[in-house]
Amino acid sequence: MRCFGNYYRIMRKRKDQRERVSLYEFIAQFETEDAAMAYIESRRWVNGRQCPRCGSESTSNASHKTMPYWCKACRKYFSVRTETLMQGSPISYKKWLMAIYLLSTSLKGVSSTKLGNDIGIRQSNAWYLAHRIRAAWANNASRLFGCQVEVDETYLGGKEKNKHQGKKQQADQIIQGG
Description:
There is one protein chain. The protein is mostly helical. The protein contains eight helices and three strands; from the N terminus they run αααβββααααα. The protein has a three-stranded antiparallel β-sheet with strand order 1-2-3, with no helix packed on it. β2 (69-71) and β3 (77-78) form a beta hairpin. α4 crosses α6 and α5 packs across α6 (123-139). The protein is extended. It starts with 6 loop residues before the first helix and ends with a helix.
């Protein structure tokens, strides 16, 4: 299945060798909420379903509305959202995946207003969603990007006369590696 999940592996290739997933192809992959949930489960539980709390593989299906699985070891309900950035969120799996796709494929970032309009939620919910996604990326930056990250077009500083007195010395220390 082609999807944005391979995005970071693909980004290591040259631009002309990258596999691209259009917005149309992305939407076609997740026509239903069940398809989106199945994709997230396949990415989260590669080696079979495990309880996110205790790690036990002794789980079974449950009839609970929002928590479809039961852990026999710790005797608690769980879902694919449990212990993830989606925990406690009423936003659908399709909208989460669409937000991740839009944020990861945008060259200059996506505002919460635009994100909310694109996926059909309020701006405040879009801000919350984007904030959680970016926080998850920040926590996994070393795993996603490796040890070295190349940064293009970095500009530090500004005119010294325009800076506050306390900022002038701090800028010198940052540039010198202090």
